[in-house]
Amino acid sequence: MQYLVTSSEMKHFDAYTSQQIGLPAMVLMERAALAIVQQLNCEQYNLLKVAVVCGYGNNGGDGVAVARLLKLQHIEVTIYLIGNPNNASQQTRQQIKIAQHYNIKINTSLPKTFHGYTTIVDAIFGIGLNRVVTDDFLHAIELINQSGADILAIDIPSGICADTGQILGNAIKAKQTVTFAYQKIGLTLYPGVDLAGKIVIADIGIYIDKPTNHFTYHSSELTNLLPKRENYTNKGSFGKVLVIAGSQNMCGAAYLSAKAAYRTGAGLVRIYTPQCNHDVLLSQLPEVILTPFIPNQINKAQLEQLINWASVIVIGPGMGVSDDTYNILSQVLAYSTVPIIIDADALNTLAQDITLLKHAQATIILTPHLGEMARLTQLSIETIKNNLIKTAEKFAEANQVICVMKDAKTIVATPKQATYINQSGNNGMATGGAGDVLTGIMAGLIAQHLPASKAACLGVYLHGLAGDISANKISKYSMLASDIIDGLTDILNSKAK
Predict the structure, then answer these.
(1) pLDDT tens profile 71-127
(2) Which CATH superfamily is domain 2-214 in?
(3) Is the distance from CB of 264 to CB of 243 less than 8 angstroms?
(4) Element at 439 (helix H, strand E)
(5) Which tens digit of pLDDT belongs to each residue from 375-417?
(6) Alpha-carbon separation of residue 279 from 6, 249, 321, 476 (angstroms)
(7) What is the helix (H) or strand (E) element at residue 293, kind and residue range?
(8) What is the pTM of this model?
């Protein structure tokens, strides 16, 4: 697990390290500057002529210290200070005083252009920025972005909100960002992650005294995250997945979900789908158990037997919004005691009557994309996009469900637990059927006795990793949902040994 921090959490850890542990703030600042200079040297930046553009907060103090260390390497470096010197932090005042003694060029006004500088270090704003950038700050960002120089941002590109990744007016587009101690949430979400360039996390000795409220996974953890498989087992040992999916002559979504569940390790998968899909599905996936129904003639007793058979239930892919979908969803929610994954048209059906959730006895996972989330919450897509984490967390808490909000960086919010922010995957996965594969992966993990909250996070992560494998093999342009399943096989083959 890799911790992700908000600006307030990072400030708390910083203060705790200085005030409770006793590591002075100036020592932390010096270590931050050393980490920046090391990166500039290791990454072979062109350091023929360097500008360090600083505000008067502690981020600016880091920048002034960087300039001094570069000067000691006999590099031509100039500091540009922006803002009101009366607002300078104590540490930044001290760093400016030191820089003056080292005879470093310090300008308190911006140049007409930064052309001619080979590298620019962005130290204007740190993680505390919570307002739209204006005036000299805005002008400085514009000049830096137009310079043509390589740009390294300290902690976070100036102009990016550390908690949401949103651009506050305008923002630095960096070649690289060196962030300290822990990854900031704003560096994991778009557009912040795009503007940050290559992200390096530098350990400067900041101490964490409590877990954070957000996390992600790293590939080195995958082997330990996967469910364990004992040797003395049978197909029943690895669970039974019921996939309720498909509609008249539409069975692709059912196929993808069912196959993904099998490929993830489920022991048995049964598809409940309209009779007309029977032959096609069996020819494509002979391993699956097929239980067909006749549209508009749902046998409630039969459906109840299937609910009782299952270890986990997927409902929604390709079903369409219809009376059958509503009636089946209602019965599943009312009678199931095993985890339920609600996806696609079951979500659109739920949006018409959210009170159906009140009848649920089981753990519920909802997997909305932004459009489906807008229908569920009655919020605009733009509002959701600007508040991804809070929207998912509030919805999960209000409805006591696990909310897997699908986006370029998918969020998994679980009541009373830390929120997962996914970092795997790519834009080639924006293709029809990719969501159906995700539901099948999560179901396969739950079938193997992984708790639903962990299965949701791991399922999203695996899904993205499988997409990354497929992108490398096929290209992002050519990827199909079925290729993600093939990528999943490759991932599990390499990690689950």
Answers:
(1) 999 999 999 999 999 999 999 999 999 999 999 999 999 999 999 999 999 999 999
(2) YjeF N-terminal domain (3.40.50.10260)
(3) no
(4) helix 434-447
(5) 999 999 999 999 999 999 999 999 999 999 999 999 999 999 9
(6) 52, 11, 23, 32
(7) strand 289-293
(8) 0.96
